[in-house]
Amino acid sequence: MKRYYLFIALLIGIIFTGCEYDNFDEPKSTLSGSVVYEGNPVGIRNNGPQLELWQDGYQLRYAIPVYIAQDGTYSVSLFDGEYKLVRKAGAPWEPQLSDTITINVKGNTVYDVPVKPYFTISKESFQHASGKITANFTVNKIVENANLAQVRLFIGHSVLTDQNKKEQVVDVDISGIIFGQQSSLSVNLSESLKKLDEVFIRVGVRANVTNEFYYTQVQKISLK
Amino acid sequence: MKKIHIYYLSILLVVAGAFAGCNEDDWLQRTPKDRITDEQLWNDPNMILGLLANYYDRLPQLAGVFNTGTNTEFDDAMWSGHVDQNWRNDINYGDDYARYWDYTFIRDINLSLENMEKYSVKLTDVQKNQFNAELRFIRAFVYFELVKRMGGVPLITTQLIYDGSGDPSSLQIPRAKESEVYDFIYDEIQAIKDNFTITEKSRTRANKFVALALQSRAMLYAGSIAKYNNLMSAPISTPGGEVGIPANKAAEYYQKSLSASKEIIANPEYELYNPGGSSKGENFYKLFMDKNAKEVIFAKDFMTGKVHGFTYDNVVRSFRSDIEGSSMLTPSLSLVESYEYLDGSDGRLKDKDSEGNYIVYDNMSDIFANKDARLYGTVVYPGSQFRNMPVNIQAGVAIWEDGGYKFRIGNLGTTYEDGKVLTGFDGPKDDDQYVSNTGFYLRKFVSENPQDGVRPSLASNWWTWFRLGEIYLNAGEAAFELGDASALGYINKVREVHGGFPANSLTTLTIEIIQNERRVELAFEDHRYFDLKRWRIADKVWNGQDSDPNAVVHGLYPYRISRPGHADDGKYIFERVRPTRFKRARFFRMANYYSSISPTVLNNNPKLVKNPFH
Fold first, then answer.
1. A154: number of Cβ within 10 Å
2. pTM to 2 decimals?
3. CATH numbers and ranges of domains, chain A
4. CA of B234: which chain A residue's CA is closest?
5. Does position A167 have pLDDT exceeding 60, yes or no?
6. B169 Cβ under 8 Å from any chain A Cβ
7. DSSP tally for chain B: helices H, then strands E
8. List of chain B residues with pLDDT < 50
9. pLDDT at A1 over 90
10. By the 8 A CB rule, do B359 and B352 touch?
């Protein structure tokens, strides 16, 4: 019987000592920040554009995907080290595949990723009066040879409002848009939205070379 | 004692001498009894046939060969099977969606081609040419699948052998241009098409017309990429041409497609399936079940011992003969509505009038009356029959209350208080599994034989890779793009023979008509995804918008009216629904036009260029 216990004790001992070799510590450092243009965070589609992180010095290379929240913030858990950040295509900003950004991650590192959107929207403001929303905003052209494809006003009942998830959308006539000058638009809220206490609004602009919009930050408009 | 030692020693010497002296080849090198040598294989036509059977079995598909699951990831259907696969109704096409990179298969074929040349001494020239042509056809087919999904890929036609030098760069082949891969497919077909002397009448092995059918389809793809990619506001391309085909090559590709289609159509061996004595809808269904159909050009056959579970997967719920399964792939309302009315009017079902009031039907099937016969051959809809028995599709009862209808639903196969059906045995039932969530079931490819839905014996109807109906549509599209007046005739012929439209039902043609015609004729035959891609409309049709009737799969639920004393009592109305199980609008991004290449492959071959957006 004693032998039996000894055997079990030994077995448990081996199992636990074995673990130390197999286990890695989880990454403890974080890299976080926002995707910014001229210091302002860029609004994007929820679950939309991504960045990529790469690390040199290993034989095989695999990208670490960086997911971006709709307000432009991101956060990744990493090991300390030197990483290269790539701004891929398929986003409302210019891809910069060869111009990588080198980031030294040590502890909690904050880094704002500069991007160059094709178009931006600034000075947006929304007013509500008896079921009608009036929007004022300015479309700016950032990339010289970009072509404007769409400007849309998105209205939703939740904070997650974008091209894919929204309750009402209005296309802005792009022929009337002058870059750098204020555009305005008024729309009647749909019947289902009128009943709510509040709606969420943002404006998006899209260049023809991408299927992603540049969005303004979501604004909550009280209806009551 | 010493004498004995010497004796042994001398024996040992003799034995050793015998071995040293013997001819190695005769004595030590024996023919292995547990494996087949190259010499044996490549001199025995039956063994080569066995090898070819393996290769034919490995022909690639995305949503073909009775692949139930992938077919529920587009706009023609949703998944109503077990809830553990409900991610198909919530799919986010990743960068690697539809990725394909099977160079193991390419190598196997290259090795076979080389070894046949090297070892074969007993085969006749006719046999050698036949096998060579079949292998090269299969290789061309695989390259077509590669270029469809990945764009230009490395063109490798010989075995790659490592020289042991420590430098693998000679094995790292860069990608060919997208157009070069299509040109390779065309050149291969021209080189082999007259060598199929043994399989002239075969429908399950490659022959001249199978090769031409591949040419018809592949060249049409190349032509439309050349045309429609360059019509995009921002064409998808790489500087080296690995992705993207110059617009000026479109006409040449369309011409090559049309000439192949014409040659197949002119051959009396192939006919659009149209037996007398049964309805057009029945005929369209039987076309896929009748292994003598002269419409089929190339099929993957199944038989006892080599079966598939498609009938088990998709049979109408109350017709299932196994203890579970059924109803997994359920067609969408948008597919059903894409079938036009026989008078040529738009296929939208008339569920409500212009004022928003329900239109009342005496019989459930009346709302589907006078539709394209291919609807019946493809979809089991409310009020239709399956296995010569009426299906029991009814969502519930509509009760007249306070000036409007209130819907009452029950469990499957329940009776309402008036003694008649409440909810049918076949549903539809929202948010339930193994019963249709859209109100429709699949008929195409689903067997009429109850035994075919039972595990493990399952079904053995065959899979059609190529059939004449597609060739007619290919011809029509290629001719249309070339501005050739014959285009209309090809399309009208298919509509007349398969759809039951009157002769010359169309008088003008647009690309949208052709696109719709392919959707209804070729539904669930592994065309839809690739067709939308090559026309460059996938990002517009599957635009990810929650409000879009195409990107979101909808259903149509029939209700029986309970309004005692009123003329409408016992009649039927229909309600459009968005099934609860359908979670996310289909969203095809620009990045999905060409799948990403695996990082492992990129690591192994630094000469490969990445696809755009990846």
1. 24
2. 0.91
3. 29-114 (2.60.40.1120), 119-222 (2.60.40.2060)
4. A209
5. yes
6. no
7. 19, 14
8. none
9. no
10. yes
